[in-house]
Amino acid sequence: MQKVYTDQTLLAVTNVQNLLAASHISAKIRNQFAAGGVGEIASIDAWPELWVDYPDVVLAKKIISDYQSPNRGADWLCNCGEKNGIAFASCWACQRDNPALKATMADS
Ligand SMILES: [Zn+2]
Q: Which end of the chain offers a freer environment for a tag, N or C, measured as fewer CB atoms within 10 Å?
């Protein structure tokens, strides 16, 4: 297994675990209970960690980096020149699919 993600909060780690589960990657959380008591600041060594089996490491890392991408939530520009909100899977003006969305689907 390999560590693919860590965060100060168990909530963030659990979110990513759920994200991976949606892609049928089973990830295990380590250090779940290692953090200090309430009010203490855990050292980075004690952060909850997300581990996946080796065959899933590459895909898991890709999903996580997509998830963390600063472009997430940004508008996308259609080939026709119209700007579309991230919530739209296809262009409101010409109905073409979001090319980025298509690429993501082809990858998986
Ligand atoms: Zn368009």
A: C
- pTM of the complete model: 0.58
Whether residues 11 and 58 share a domain: the answer is yes
**Number of domains, the chain:** 2
CA 46 to ligand 1 center in whole angstroms: 48
CA of 108 to the centre of ligand 1 (A): 25
Phi/psi at 97 (5° precision): -70, 150
pLDDT tens digits for range 64-86: 988 887 655 667 888 899 888 77
User: Distance, CA 94 to ligand 1 centroid (Å)?
Assistant: 4
Is residue 42 within 8 Å of 36, Cβ to Cβ?
Answer: yes
Q: How far apart are CA 95 and CA 80, in angstroms?
A: 10
Residue whose tokens read 């999903």: 63
**Whether residue 103 is found in the same domain as residue 52:** no
